[in-house]
Design a protein that fits this description.
Order of helices and strands: HHH
Largest sheet: none
Number of helices: 3
Helix content: 55-70%
Mean pLDDT: 94
Strand content: under 5%
Number of strands: 0
Distance between the termini: 23 Å
Radius of gyration: 13 Å
Shape: elongated
């Protein structure tokens, strides 16, 4: 299990995932008046992206998917 949660992205990948997380959180804020469910899904995905950026870990790469960043 330790290998699954080991750091697997570099600084560029962390930056991209952090910006993606912030964009998803902004989308959640803008969609809140229209759909609470959509805002919740976007907020959850945004927080997960920020956690990936802070840990330096990508779930897709941990599962064996080759990503560009």
């Amino acid at each position: 299990m330790k290998r699954f949660f080991a750091c697997n992205i570099d600084g560029k990948g962390r930056l991209v995932r952090g910006l993606m997380g912030l964009a998803l959180l902004a989308g959640a804020a803008f969609s809140m008046p229209h759909s609470v469910w959509l805002a919740g899904v976007l907020a959850t995905a945004g927080v997960f992206g920020i956690v990936e950026a802070l840990r330096g870990w990508c779930v897709a790469r941990a599962c064996g998917v080759k990503t560009r960043l």
